[in-house]
Design a protein that fits this description.
Rossmann fold, elongated, six-stranded mixed sheet, 10 helices
Length: 321
């Protein structure tokens, strides 16, 4: 049995579990290698929004680069092909849009890694019992979205997260309370089904109650694309069209950054290896070495040993840290 294949299937099983939990992550796959890289063709790894890695795609030089690009892929929602090595190792013509990152560590060869985002299933929360709210939920379910149809009093912070889309369709039955609860929960989208005049009245009332302006400014009113005079079912189509459009343009990915920051403390501190030029994550595992009052970090012990022999030859005019 191929041990590498076994590990790859374990990574995919873990990916399925993260998907079921509603977590965002990136799946990195080695599609080509040139020895003596420690990564193998077909090797896979999962990188979470907070920068944690599960699986194996390469050694100390490759891993921090892949993590950094994977977090960008999650935030942008777009896949990318990453080439780790010198440009000449990949031939004369490198297609536009492919990222090439030099790796000059002696222990590394070259890798071509495909990184794809795996984003949570969209979550729609409709508040109200109007026919429009029911139609909106039915349409969203037809797209495979996760949906909840709630009465206003049933909405709580536990009902939504930073990626949820909340549509308040109470239509005069507790609009103010529902909007206040929705914006306080901090979802990616809050829309109010109401006329412009009614919406201004609701937001004005909440402003007088002390709801922060930055929260109220996020409320879209009236919710949905402007399709002109429409029936309640067509209003549902207009709202869903707006949500699809916003997701397509990346407006719903802001919650991923917030989730990553809450779970992983934000972007990790990084430094440049003064020997090979690789970007490494600052920490004890980055082989720190102090020279003339400055701490330098390295992708591997070999680069540190090379630096120790002739530190002055590798120190730049500006500190790498």
């Amino acid at each position: 049995m191929d041990h590498c294949a076994d590990e790859g299937w374990a990574v995919l099983e873990h990916a399925g579990e993260l998907k079921r939990q509603g977590q965002a992550f990136a799946l990195a796959t080695v599609v080509w290698r040139q020895g003596p890289s420690s990564g193998k063709q077909g090797s896979r790894a999962i990188i979470t929004a907070s920068g944690e890695i599960y699986g194996w795609i390469g050694g100390a030089c490759a891993e921090p680069v892949v993590i950094r690009h994977a977090r960008q892929v999650i935030a942008e929602g777009l896949p990318r092909l990453l080439l780790l090595g010198e440009s000449e190792q990949f031939g004369a013509a490198i297609p536009e849009g492919i990222a090439v990152v030099p790796i000059s560590c002696q222990s590394e060869g070259a890798l071509e890694i495909y990184i794809e985002p795996v984003l949570p299933t969209p979550h729609l929360v409709a508040i109200g019992r109007s026919p429009m709210a029911h139609t909106l939920v039915d349409l969203a379910r037809a797209l495979g979205w996760r949906t909840d149809l709630l009465e206003g009093p049933d909405l709580s912070p536990a009902s939504v997260d930073a990626r949820s889309m909340v549509v308040v369709a109470t239509q005069g039955h507790g609009d103010e309370e529902a909007v206040e609860q929705a914006v306080t929960a901090g979802p990616a989208y809050v829309g109010l089904v109401a006329s412009q005049r009614r919406g201004e009245a609701v937001l004005g009332y909440l402003a007088q109650r002390g709801v922060p302006k930055d929260q109220l400014d996020r409320v879209r009113v009236p919710a949905g694309l402007d399709l002109g005079p429409t029936s309640h079912r067509e209003v549902a189509v207009a709202i869903l069209a707006e949500l699809v459009q916003l997701r397509a343009f990346g407006a719903m990915t802001a919650g991923l950054t917030a989730t990553a920051a809450a779970g992983g403390g934000g972007e990790p501190a990084e430094a440049v290896d003064p020997v090979c030029g690789m970007t490494v994550t600052i920490g004890p595992s980055a082989h720190p070495f102090e020279y003339e009052g400055v701490t330098y970090y390295f992708c591997c012990a070999g680069c540190r040993r090379e630096f120790e022999k002739q530190p002055a030859a590798h120190v730049k005019e500006e500190s790498p840290c």
